[in-house]
Design goal:
The protein has 100 residues and is of the alpha+beta class. It has a single domain, classed as Alpha-Beta Plaits, CATH 3.30.70. The chain contains 2 helices and 5 strands. Strand 4 and strand 5 form a beta hairpin.
């Protein structure tokens, strides 16, 4: 097993885990119950960890995570149909489901 990603927000770890699982990379989440210990132990120790079982796919997993992080840094886009603002990583408009 190899640690592949860590973050204080469980939702971010979940996004990364789902993306890897869709690519057939089996994952395990650890430290997901340590949030209550924040302040008692070092902050980095309470971050949620994402591990992969197949270490031979580590570079692929890291690349996938980097791609997702790059999408999150892009600017939002306006829907051509309803003009709603959408996060960069949405391929369909959240309001009217028009394709980007």
């Amino acid at each position: 097993m190899q640690l592949i990603y860590t973050h204080p927000n469980s939702m971010m770890v979940g996004v990364m885990a789902n993306a890897l699982e869709q690519r057939g990379i089996e994952t395990e989440t650890r430290n997901d119950i340590l949030g209550g210990a924040a302040g008692e132990i070092a902050p980095g120790e309470t971050w949620i960890e994402l591990w992969i079982f197949d270490e031979t796919r580590a570079e692929e997993a890291k690349g996938c995570i980097q791609d997702i992080q790059a999408l999150q840094e892009e600017a939002e886009w306006a829907c051509m149909g309803c003009k709603a603002s959408n996060p960069a990583n949405f391929e369909l408009c959240w309001q009217c489901q028009t394709s980007r």
